[in-house]
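Field reference: sequence -> structure
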Amino acid sequence: MKALVDGDINTITNGTFKGSILIEDDKIAEIGKEIDVPDEAKIIDVKGKTIIPGLIEAHCHTGIHEEGEGWQGNDTNEMYDPITPHLRALDGINPDDIGLKEAVKAGITTVNVTPGSANPIGGQSVALKTAGSNIVDDLVLKEPTGMKMAFGENPKRVYREQDKLPSTRMTTAGLLRKTLSESENYDGDDEEKENFKLQALKPVLEKELKARIHAHRADDMISAIRIAEEFDFDMVLEHATEGHKIAEFLAKREVPAVVGPCLSSKSKRENAARTFETPGVLSDKGVKVALMTDSPVIPTKYLNLMAAYSVKEGMDEEEALKAITIYAAEICGIDHRVGSLEKGKDADIVVLDGDPLEIKSRVEKVFIEGDEIDTEDL
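Structure field:
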């Protein structure tokens, strides 16, 4: 049992106050301005420090595209079959990735790892804790957290180079419709005709699993929504680079967006409108926004920088912090355990010497499920 005492606690969901947090096993047992601390509890004095929940990266490839490992550590995309819903990011993740170690040092305690965007349907994402075991299965918070799909340039480029379909946006949409229709009509009764691909899509069509749809351009986002409405499934937009152009359209349809990585270069035509103004515009219109690094495009450790720059370009500061905590958790379906400091939630807690969106602030302590992580030993 541990007690963080006399800190400046930002709960994210229930205000900010000077108080204490009691940790028992892996959960927050008590939190408040004044709590009873048992005599047997280990006291950790955090007076003058800022206490926040562990940060959450809602979209990255950390662990599945390892930093500094070249092709040997890159298992993000299966680029020889455009339809791969049965693939699981979990099967390609190395928990010893440098990116995960740097993430926890920066106060990021959960990452949502997705397959890449080479395929119209790429596979299943997974939410992981960033430290605590050398066995990836022990780090799993939830799996799957979504089904990756992709529109725009990436599928066109990958398969055109192989003289395969899809080579146009029309064909990407057509392949999606064809596969979703086949899954709708697949009953799985005949074991000899068992189809892992179509089985994997059933939870999407039954609204048990959200489609996580890669789209940068406004027209691609609208195409994605069109297909989601045709087949009546729930979705999240990933990247949403031109989201500011159709913010009211997205808000009306209550489509959440994981925006970014706005810090990277305008590396291809569909990124030409990339700006840190997008998160604020979407948020102001009522779109639920999370932020991403898209690691290793931007290293995961700079997640708070994505929020800070978004504030600089107009996003409300409280909304920006929620975009890397509770909104990220809600979008990934893990908010019952992480994303805010509340009694009963996982004791994923970060202690800083200042404002979490201030670049000069340092992370001093990180707790994941109640255990203080020795970041010097990572």
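Note: The chain has a mean pLDDT of 97.
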